Amino acid sequence: MTTLATAPRARTAAASSARPGAHLAADVWTMVRRCVLLVSRDVDSLVMGVALPVMLMVVFVYVFGGAIQAGLDGTTYLNYVTPGIVLLCAGFGAANTALAVQQDVAGGIVDRFRSMPVTAWTLLVGHVVASVVKNLVTTGVVVGVAYLMGFRPDATLAEWLGAVGIIVLWVVAITWAATFVGVVVRSVDAASAATFVMLFVPYVSSAFVPPQTMPALLRGFAEHQPVTPVIETIRGLLTGTELGTSPVLAVVWCVGIATVFAVLAGVVFGRRRHRAG
């Protein structure tokens, strides 16, 4: 009985040891295709990922915009708020990634991968890449709706590419953070509660109102948290506002967050698989 139980694992280990780097890339590609396919089939999530940011943009522009406009030094509130809505859209996408990862970890699919010559941690990479693809699509739709509402960026092609690059970096960073949450928690409800923080943080930044209008304590947090330099970089590239040190801070924050949470997610994922085995 012991021989029968250990034989599949022995064959898997032998197959894995014989797989060079090219096969690792093939594993990543397989997982990316799987996760992108799952995302494309989750129509409800795609619709809500676009509808909620658009509804928030409509509310902020048409309900609160008139009251906030006076403190923006001539910049239209729609131009001001659109970068913040883009990051909020990315937050919704990352929250869904945490749920998807948790469902995979708890649903037994990882155990099935353990019985095949597949590098299991590539599952996490697949979820991150799928999140980036989904978020770029939904971000494009949100920017298109903002343009219909009157958003008029004056960016050059290079500035547009820079803004997209910062958006991609931010999506990768918060998706790895969400992936870590999905690996750590034990239920979908816990994943939903944990990722609420990612949805809340943009509100206490320069996304919707200038930080100088906030009370001193909130202003200090808003000016020194990672969302603000990311938003200020996107806003500066698209609408010509002052950039200052925001691009450097944005890149440092994004790379730092992505690196830390990618390592933590990989470590915790490996330990959970080891205990399950």
TrEMBL record:
The chain crosses the membrane at residues 46-68, 80-101, 121-148, 160-183, 190-209, 248-269. Residues 44-272 form the ABC transmembrane type-2 domain. Keywords: Antibiotic resistance, Cell membrane, Membrane, Transmembrane, Transmembrane helix, Transport. One of its GO terms (biological process) is response to antibiotic. Belongs to the ABC-2 integral membrane protein family. Pfam families: ABC2_membrane (PF01061). It comes from Sediminihabitans luteus. The lineage of its organism: Bacteria, Bacillati, Actinomycetota, Actinomycetes, Micrococcales. This is Transport permease protein. One of its GO terms (cellular component) is ATP-binding cassette (ABC) transporter complex. It is a multi-pass membrane protein. It comes from the Bacteria.
